[in-house]
Amino acid sequence: MSTETGPAIEPAQMPDGVRVSGDVHVRLEHVDKIFPGRGRRGVPQAALKDVDLEIRRGEVFGIIGYSGAGKSTLLRLINGLEVPSSGQVLVGGHELTALGERGRREVRRDIGMVFQQFNLFRSRTVAGNVAYPLKVAGLGRDERERRVARLLDFVGLLDRAHDHPEQLSGGQKQRVGIARALATEPSLLLADEATSALDPETTGEVLGLLRRVNRDLGVTIVLITHELDVIRAVADRVAVLDAGRVVETGSVYDVFARPQTEAAARFIGTTLRDRPSPATLARLRATHSGRLVTVRVRDQAGFQTRLARTFLDHQVAAEIVFGGISELQDRPVGGLTFELTGPDGAVDTALAALRADGVDLIEEPE
Ligand SMILES: Nc1ncnc2c1ncn2[C@@H]1O[C@H](COP(=O)(O)OP(=O)(O)OP(=O)(O)O)[C@@H](O)[C@H]1O
Q: Start and end of every ABC transporter domain (predicted)?
């Protein structure tokens, strides 16, 4: 039996909603964003179409989708760098389009940004990078130094304060990026592919830090990424963007374990590794002559007893030949592939009984 391994990153420990206060931090209502076509004959690009979204204060909210789905545009609308073609964007209750540039700047002051390529000043030290937004905000030198020391301590880089960014690893650079984003004590942090330039180990380190930013400082985090394991590791809720539309929103467990739309299922695809790959299936077929059936394991109490009893009742021999169960938001998720042997009619009746009982099963194709 092959055993699945979970993601390299530990899943979030808190169940959905525990530390979320419930009030809305960011709201998008019927937002369209159409870019004029590039060049004289350019065709206008609808980057976002009728997007409705609610991000609660204190949660980690993930936005996933293929390249070009509209993720960056969505983030730029939230920080007021783009304005919607129609619809409304509200941040902390402020409707951004109604504010004008000055008001938007005020709102932006309460938003930190973290970027894929870190965007650090190469000519400044680590401390100088973190101090920069404080200087812009007009804080005095003593207060700046106090805050920079506190932030560098928080991200574990106090001993690197006088180094320059090129002396740091990618993960350390991103930790400086996060310290800088937090310097003005924002209540909202927007992370744009914050770990996409990092290796898996460093990704875990940065995600651990983002989780502390959320839990210890109570900062709402909006994370856009195409990396499903990142969402799985830190997000409470997630929205799936497909060609400019939000096709699904919900807790990470619900969206990943029970996608409701074909588009979300396609994107989430094999991330849960709850079915054997075609290559594994071919190997299984070579050594097992019975019918192969995969049962999706979700948080259904008593389902294994029901399985065992049904197979027994119908005198079907069931042997697990592949599978694994891991955790997502503290709830079980996975798949078990059985080789079923017995008269064809008995196997069919057992499968029908299980399906009628709500068991999610797939007979693997020959
Ligand atoms: N300033 C712009 N002018 C014209 N078209 C744009 C502009 N910005 C984005 N687009 C288009 O809008 C669509 C969505 O782009 P966006 O960058 O938001 O997607 P994304 O999901 O962030 O993709 P990626 O992961 O590749 O960054 C794309 O078709 C893109 O070409």
A: 26-268
